[in-house]
């Protein structure tokens, strides 16, 4: 089944502790939900093949620990990431406020600047919402991010989040093509300029 | 003719007229001359010649006479001179004889004097009249000296005489000594040990003041004995031995034993000094008390022993004035003052500067003591040893204080490290209350604050943790905590001390830390190398000290004497040294532990051929040993090291183990399925039990957090996890973990190692080749 896979994409899930990063991943990969899921220690990893617009992509998804105490480990995971899912909890404003910190960290450790970011407001099934959808949207626009609200519990928006992210990555050819060509073959100057153009188009 | 022509020429005619007259005149003239010549001739021959003849006869007579005289003279000379010489020699001889005779007479007289002196002396001695006896003996000695000065005297006799004199002198000295011992009676304790109180109590000194009437042979008075000694020139030696006894048996015990008191017992004919013990709780007598005791004894001696002879002596007035007290004083004073200083004044020096004022009393009593000794003439006018010592109190105080501080510090440094106390921001600080900084200082701060609030809130929104600068909770040696308290107290003391003292105290505190630097690693060297827990405590100790040294100087800066306020009152320069001291010790311990871990792992035989039962058991034993060692370390460091250091240290050691295992396993060329399973189970043991060694806190429930954080402290944790997955994974799973170089396997291992592992784990098949092809 690997043969028809277009590319392998490295996706990173980041965000404050307890916003539901692991739950989103579990819902996406295994379609399960555990309300008592333990906090992630260090990092978790899952592989899932996804089909978007007829293109198959294999996702190597890194689920990082949100707790401050594991923060020293995360920088190394950013290397080579093509997409980042930044998660906050719509019922906890503090997780939304801290997004700036995460963006800052992302910018610091990311090895490339055309990486695709997706902002996910999780737990929309809960009633005590503290962050309005528009606020999230505004924040995402401000930082040129994709945006979606989701619920790992009710399955709302989860699949969509990943699909949209992958779609966007694939639409950004330099982001994955150049990487594929990077392996073994030297880049010609023409292709390099092509990559630069793609970046401009995305922005 | 010319005369005639002239006359004719000049006279002319006139002269012709006168010619007649002139001829007549001429004739007259010739007549006159004729007479004269006749006269002359007759005179010459008739008068002169006879006179001439008689004169010649006389000359001849004189010649013979003088010849006679000459002869007589020579005869006299030869004969009289010879006789004179002979008589002179004779006279000289006579004179010499006279002289010799008078010398002999003189000598005989001397001898007679000598003999009578000896005789009289003998009788005087028999009657125990020592003073005349001594004088006579001295006279005899004078005689002998005179005799000796006459060289011509018979030596043999001199010898025997001087021998006799010596014998007599010894004789009188013996008698004097005998009587002296009867007059001044010492009673000593049976045991030789003079230091114990009991033996001191048995010491007594009796002084006879009057003749015991009943005795057959009355004793001479002390004064006569002493005077006789003085005449004989033996007084200094006698007094010296007496003075030394006095020092050894009476004065020194009085100074050293606070409970000992001298008791003076006056009997009709004697005075005795003995001791009694009064209970006291002080270890060393206060100086005024010691002074009083000594003064009492010396007063008695002065009155009974030393004062008496002088009056009698002065009446006779022949011996130069000797002050016995002065002589005795010369003998004992140096030792006595030394003893007083060392046993009494030294301990009276206060240990606290606040008591320094009260010391004025002691200075005064010292002054009075010396004054009274001078009045009793024990001391000469210019001696002020004690007073000088007492007046120098400030320097003694500083010296003593500093010495005490250093001794106390050294004692703390050499005490056991493992007696620990917990310290940290939550723990009660038992350091002395430090006076708050200057009021002015605080005022300024307040003013500043007011200005800030006026200008708007400039405080940062997020403030630092109030404990950001605190030392983390850990255990340190109790002794080190005390050491730090000692440093604070000493510096506090310095703030209220005199300049010189403050400087000395300040540098003593610095010396404490220098001393720590040198003493502790040396003194505890073996234990610090051998025992990981001690190494950890020592590490904490050093960090604790360094932590305090950062602010120690600053805390006291404004309150120390201005001399010290030139920027040198700091301890900050010692901080890096202390940190290094702590880390070096702990790192050395870490290296030791690491070496041990690797050595244990080396018995695992490279983890090869695990399907061999023996190899497997060796490997599993090695792994269990390593985990056991780590667990043990985790326990001895628990609650001791600060949590972050604990985790770092344990993490580093666990990482060493894991890295070694990864290295060994990835180097294997062939891993059978059974090998893989067994390797997996070995790794699983480490994976399961490894985190459990992280137990920084004694409360077991709180340690879970740190056990979860193992990946943070053990850098090879994730690679190890990947390795374990690989040992049991299918090719497909390995491929997923690799994920085009984007999976965790790719972060954990380079592609070459992953490929090598795949080749070791799997048979050479097409599927393997395909999988290998994906690992780029």
- The poorly predicted ranges of chain A are 181-203
Our estimate of the beta-strand percent of chain B is under 5%
Q: How many DSSP helices of chain B?
A: 28
Structural class of chain A: alpha/beta
Q: How much strand content do the residues of chain A show? A: 15-25%
Work out the number of β strands of chain A. 6
Main pleated sheet of chain B:
4 strands, antiparallel
Outline type of chain B: elongated
Distance between the termini of chain A: 34 Å
> Which class do the helix and strand fractions of chain B yield?
mainly alpha
The largest sheet of chain A, given as strand count, sense and whether it forms a barrel, is:
6 strands, mixed
Helix percentage range of chain B: over 70%
| Rg over C-alpha atoms of chain A, rounded to the nearest angstrom | 17 Å
| Oligomerization status of the protein chains | heterodimer
Q: Tally of extended strands of chain B?
A: 6
Average pLDDT reading of chain B: 81
With strands numbered from the N-terminus, the spatial order across the biggest sheet of chain A is: 2-3-1-4-5-6
The N- to C-terminal Cα distance of chain B equals: 194 Å
* Largest interface by Cβ-Cβ < 8 Å: A-B, 23 and 19 residues
């Amino acid at each position: 089944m690997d043969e028809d896979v277009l590319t392998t994409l490295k996706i990173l899930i980041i965000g404050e502790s307890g916003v539901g990063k692991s739950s989103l991943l579990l819902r996406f990969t295994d379609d399960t939900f555990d309300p008592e899921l333990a906090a992630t220690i260090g990092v978790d990893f899952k592989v899932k093949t996804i089909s978007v617009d007829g293109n198959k992509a294999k996702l190597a998804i890194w689920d990082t620990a949100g707790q401050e105490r594991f923060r020293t480990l995360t920088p190394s995971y950013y290397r080579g990431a093509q997409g980042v899912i930044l998660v906050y909890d719509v019922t906890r404003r503090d997780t939304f406020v801290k997004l700036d910190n995460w963006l800052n960290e992302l910018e610091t450790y990311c090895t490339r600047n055309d990486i695709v970011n997706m902002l996910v407001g999780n737990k929309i099934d809960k009633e005590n919402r503290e962050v309005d959808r528009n606020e999230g949207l505004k924040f995402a626009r401000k930082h040129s991010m994709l945006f979606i609200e989701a619920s790992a519990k009710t399955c709302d928006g989860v699949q969509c989040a990943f699909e949209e992210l992958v779609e966007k990555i694939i639409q950004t050819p330099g982001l994955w093509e150049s990487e594929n060509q990077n392996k073994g073959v030297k880049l010609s100057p023409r292709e390099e300029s092509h990559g630069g153009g793609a970046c401009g188009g995305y922005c | 003719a010319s005369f005639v022509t002239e006359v004719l020429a000049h006279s002319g005619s006139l002269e012709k007229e006168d010619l007649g007259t002139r001829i007549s005149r001429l004739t007259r003239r010739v007549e006159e001359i004729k007479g004269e010549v006749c006269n002359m001739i007759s005179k010459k021959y008739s008068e002169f010649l006879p006179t001439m003849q008689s004169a010649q006869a006389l000359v001849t007579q004189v010649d013979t006479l003088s010849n006679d005289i000459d002869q007589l003279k020579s005869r006299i000379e030869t004969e009289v001179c010879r006789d004179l010489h002979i008589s002179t020699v004779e006279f000289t001889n006579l004179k010499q004889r006279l002289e010799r005779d008078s010398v002999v007479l003189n000598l005989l007289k001397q001898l007679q004097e000598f003999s009578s002196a000896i005789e009289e002396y003998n009788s005087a001695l028999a009657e125990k009249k020592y003073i005349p006896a001594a004088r006579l003996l001295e006279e005899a000695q004078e005689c002998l000296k005179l005799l000796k000065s006459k060289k011509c005297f018979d030596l043999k006799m001199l010898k025997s005489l001087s021998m006799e004199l010596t014998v007599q002198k010894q004789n009188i000295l013996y008698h004097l000594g005998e009587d002296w011992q009867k007059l001044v009676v010492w009673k000593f304790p049976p045991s030789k040990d003079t230091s114990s109180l009991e033996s001191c109590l048995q010491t007594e000194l009796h002084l006879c003041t009057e003749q015991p009437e009943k005795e057959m042979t009355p004793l001479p008075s002390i004064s006569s004995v002493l005077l006789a000694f003085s005449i004989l020139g033996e007084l200094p030696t006698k007094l010296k031995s007496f003075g030394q006894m006095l020092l050894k048996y009476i004065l020194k015990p009085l100074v050293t034993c606070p409970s000992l008191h001298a008791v003076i017992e006056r009997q009709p004919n004697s005075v005795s000094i003995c001791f009694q013990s009064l209970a006291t709780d002080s270890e060393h007598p206060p100086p005024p008390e010691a002074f009083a005791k000594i003064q009492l004894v010396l007063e008695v001696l002065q009155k009974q022993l030393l004062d008496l002879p002088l009056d009698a002596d002065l009446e006779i007035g022949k011996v130069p004035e000797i002050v016995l007290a002065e002589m005795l004083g010369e003998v004992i004073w140096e030792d006595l003052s030394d003893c007083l200083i060392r046993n009494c004044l030294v301990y009276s020096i206060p240990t606290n500067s606040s008591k320094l004022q009260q010391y004025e009393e002691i200075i005064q009593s010292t002054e009075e003591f010396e004054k009274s000794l001078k009045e009793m003439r024990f001391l000469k006018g210019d001696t002020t040893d004690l007073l000088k010592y007492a007046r120098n109190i400030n320097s003694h105080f500083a010296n003593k204080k500093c010495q005490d501080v250093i001794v106390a510090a050294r004692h703390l440094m050499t005490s056991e490290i493992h007696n620990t106390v917990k310290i940290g921001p939550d723990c009660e600080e038992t350091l002395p209350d430090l006076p708050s900084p200057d009021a002015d200082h605080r005022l300024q701060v307040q003013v500043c604050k007011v200005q800030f609030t006026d200008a708007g809130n400039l405080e940062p929104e997020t403030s630092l943790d109030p404990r950001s600068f605190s030392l983390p909770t850990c255990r340190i040696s109790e002794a080190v905590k005390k050491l730090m308290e000692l440093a604070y107290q000493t510096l506090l003391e310095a703030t209220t001390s005199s300049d010189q003292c403050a400087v000395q105290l300040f540098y003593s505190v610095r010396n404490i830390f220098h001393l720590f630097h040198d003493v502790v690693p040396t003194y505890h060297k073996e234990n610090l190398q051998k025992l990981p827990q001690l190494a950890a405590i020592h590490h904490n100790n050093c960090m604790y000290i360094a932590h305090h040294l950062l602010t120690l100087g600053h805390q006291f800066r404004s309150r120390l004497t201005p001399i010290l306020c030139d920027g040198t009152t700091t301890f900050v320069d010692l901080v890096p040294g202390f940190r290094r001291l702590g880390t070096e010790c702990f790192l050395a311990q870490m290296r030791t532990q690491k070496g041990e871990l690797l050595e244990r792992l080396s018995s695992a035989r490279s983890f090869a051929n695990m399907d061999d039962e023996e190899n497997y058991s060796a490997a599993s034993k090695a792994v269990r040993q390593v985990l056991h060692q780590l667990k043990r370390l985790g326990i001895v460091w628990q609650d001791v090291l600060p949590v972050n250091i604990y985790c770092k240290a344990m993490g580093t050691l666990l990482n060493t183990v894991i890295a070694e295992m990864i290295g060994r396993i990835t180097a294997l060329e062939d891993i059978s399925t059974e090998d893989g399973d067994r390797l997996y189970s070995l790794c699983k043991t480490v994976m399961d039990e490894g985190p459990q060694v992280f137990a920084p806190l004694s409360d077991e429930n709180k340690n879970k957090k740190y056990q979860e954080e193992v990946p943070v402290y053990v850098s090879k944790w994730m690679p190890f996890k990947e390795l374990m997955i690989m040992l049991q994974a299918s090719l497909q799973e390995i491929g997923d973990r690799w994920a085009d170089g984007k999976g965790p396997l790719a972060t954990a291992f380079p592609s070459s190692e992953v490929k090598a592992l795949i080749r070791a784990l799997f048979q050479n098949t097409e599927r393997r080749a395909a999988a290998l092809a994906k690992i780029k």
